[in-house]
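hey so i finally got around to running both of the ones u sent me last week. sorry it took forever, my laptop kept dying halfway thru and i had to restart like 3 times lol. anyway pasting them below in the order u listed, first the sequence line then the structure token line for each. didnt double check formatting much so if smth looks off just lmk and ill redo it

first one:
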Amino acid sequence: MLDILLMSLLGIIAGIFAGLVPGIHSNLLATASLSIYAAINPSFISPLSLCAFIYTLSLVNNFLSFIPSTYLGVPDSGTVLSLMPAHQYLKEGKGHEAVILSLIGAYGSMIASIITLPIFIFLVKISYSFIKKQVPILLILIALTLILREKSKFLAFYTFLCAGILGIITLNLQRLNEPLLPLLTGLFGMPALISSISAKESLSQQVITFPEIKPKEISKSISVSLISGSIFSFLPSLGPSQAAVFSSLITKDSSRQSYLMLIGALNTMSMIISIATFYLINKARNGAIVAISTILPAIDLNLLLFFLAITLIVGYPTLHVTLFLSRKFSYFISKANYQLISIIVMVLITVISLIISGPLSHLILFTATAIGFIPQITNVSRNHLMGCLMLSTIMYYLL
């Protein structure tokens, strides 16, 4: 038990590091941990302790990732589409408020998803065999729905196609490690950073404000996230950001507050849904669960409860750590030169991509950045850039 507690504590520290440092993702640390463990095979670390470490760092990273996506414009894979609403808050001097909204959704959905997990388990057991046969059809319908709602449907389709072709090429490059690092950073992060620099963007003085939001709006966002998150958990290549977009279309609520709460809710509950899905159908839906599945080929009910207990124990202190660090970032970003910060972050991302993914990553990064500017130039939604994952998944199922 002591080794599990120690590894969970180390997981919290690693999750904070992964959440705050641009370009360092929890999946990367999980993979590195597996490699180190296999190489030295320490007798004092049990397989279950290592799983606790990986699960904890991924859960903590989900909370902390709202800080760089808000203050630095560098998205995590689960927060790529929240970047613009959060950045709008930042420009108004309310970056901390954007983080609070994300955390309200994150912590609320964490509790709600654990409470409603028995219902999810029941529904999966009776519907999974049908849903898995419809994956390509559902993905095509979702893509078409998002494209057809645009005024310029051709430009929306063109954006989806460009990102999709780049995604297929990138994901099939054998010599490229961590392909999502240059791909998603180029499509979503770099255009925002470059725009900030070229526009000589200046930030308003950041102030610590709190959202004026009714409990009814919070419960609505969490309820919608439970439904859409459960459905989207079965669809490969779709994550919290895409579920939030689709949820907003269904509820017809396009407010920034609701959207950020939805992103927060879906980003955190994805971990809980993923571990439950692994328990039910032995399928890993994200990088952390894939790493865990290499250690534990299957989990029973006791192990599922073990991971849920970690979620409850780690979630509350992580909430306060994120709020504390967000206040510090809010103070720092007000005093610093934002253009200089953007340049430093861009250089850091470029260097990290080179170290982790190799020289070929720069070709992907630059190409993805060029495609990432298409929505800004044409004024179509950036969610079509998720064709980088959706198109390859559709082709996989159809061919």
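and the second one:
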Amino acid sequence: MRRDLLAWLVVGLVVLGACGGGQEVSPSGVQVPGDPELGRDAIAAYGCTACHAVPGVPGNHTEVGPPLAGLAQRRVIAGRLPNTPENVAAWVRRPQEIDPGNVMPDLDVTPEDAEHIAAYLYTLR
């Protein structure tokens, strides 16, 4: 009986681990916290398409900043940060703190919105 319970517990933990523990798994295979759909909405709400071409987000797709298609496949962001979901969220929240004087403005993005934005950007191949 105790052995059966242990076996079921192990199976449950394996299944939970395979599901990512509630996190999205991007096409690049990276687990990303946040909700991509909320991220797409946040990208539109913060006006990111005023400077970036962002697939799947309506708006004026200009190229003041780099196009964000394929962001999940890039090795670095902001010219020097390793491309991780945490660094993408930090960059979205505080670009001037990370690289003072760059052209990306601080838009007072909330931590939650930054996480959702990173989740959406990680869906882009």
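quick thing i noticed on the 2nd:
Residues 24-121 form a domain with the Immunoglobulin-like fold (CATH 2.60.40.420).
anyway thats it, ttyl
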